[in-house]
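Minutes, project check-in
Item: structure for the 59-residue chain
Input as provided by the requester:
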Amino acid sequence: MKLVSRFEAASRSTAELHGLLSEAFNAFAIAPRGSEERRNALQSMRNIEDELAVRPPKL
């Protein structure tokens, strides 16, 4: 999986971020342990979750 940077996450809509988070989770789950793909997926999840955390909640 391509790494989703914090800058890229900030430029996406909340709906897109939720979709990307799901993709990153799935990529993490199937990637071999210790692989670059797994590290990228994990860091992407962190970046996406950090961006979602600073956004105001939608009602």
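Outcome recorded: Residues 36-54 form the longest helix (19 residues).
No further action items on this chain.
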